[in-house]
Amino acid sequence: MKVLIAPDKFKGSLPAAEVARCLALGLSGSGAECHELPLADGGDGSVEAAVAAGFEPVWITVAGATGTPRRTRIALRGDTVVIEVANTCGLATAPLGRGYPLDASSLGFGQALRQAMRLHPRRILLALGGSASTDAGMGLLTALGYRFLDDTGRILPPSGRTLLDIATIDDTAAVRLPAVELVAACDVTNPLTGPPGAAVVYGPQKGADPATVRHLDRGLRRIVEALSDNSFPQASTLAEIPGAGSAGGLGFAAMLLGARLVSGADYFLDLLDFDRHRMAADLIVTGEGSLDEQTAHGKLPAAVARRAASTPVIAVAGRVAVPRNTLPAFTEVHALSDYTNQNTAHNPTLTAELLVRIGHTIARTHSQAVQPDPA
User: Fold this and answer.
1) Structure pTM?
2) At a CB cut-off of 8 Å and minimum separation 6, what does 240 contact?
């Protein structure tokens, strides 16, 4: 039995590569031939998924969410570079893993973009998930040479805190991007501002209380006004486009720079040659930390099931938070919570043990089903 193991990460527990390895250990122990293809959807783990698929890791140094320098990686293959918010200045880079909703910045992501440009790619994929900031890309633009000034002419450090102080924007020293295709991968449809916008919907997840949410939303409106008055007349229109509010407004800033927004899940399936791999498989095993109400709306396991054609797809998750008959057309679903009463969300050791066990169960159940009839 040939099995394609193509999971996303189990957030807070194991990266996608470890999830795939554990499932393969259980499956191959029962005689299955496994191919591991760790996946991502534009969130944290995007660079690691690219590296696992054959991209070359390139080490860089950038500013983390609150400015502390950190070493991280981008990924290069041919003329394509993958950079991600999560491993440059995402929530995981903040001190003690806490949210800093007013002071976090996207500066490190902009620094990663500048260093990616030095590799002379034709295409740069911007993976926008896992952000810590709500600064509408003020940090990204600052790293590219844009200067944001208050009404006294003082240069403002980029963060959600300073958005309301922006009076003018100086782009005389801004880096002009070469003829490179920018592709921004995200799977949210929020505009930049207002009730469905970046601050109101995602600010609380980053530690913002109601007063901070209001401050940030006003700041997002202010930067749109300032940009509209300073070299970006299209800013107001771009702020309303679905996806502009992704990653604290980085979707908006990416579009200002000429990026096109794409579905993260589908784009990564193409980037990592999913269709070629699935054609050689008798069975596909996918999954992620939680199968929930968002699963059917573009999350990676649903995209895998949709692209699998006639190949059976088994989903494995840490938990299943919706009735299983409402999930996409998986052949079957296994949840770690079916095998233990313990919380596996932050227990990598237990998660790994259960994934091996589930892999063994899948192999035992399905190996006979795919055997050819005797001649």
Assistant:
1) 0.91
2) 191, 192
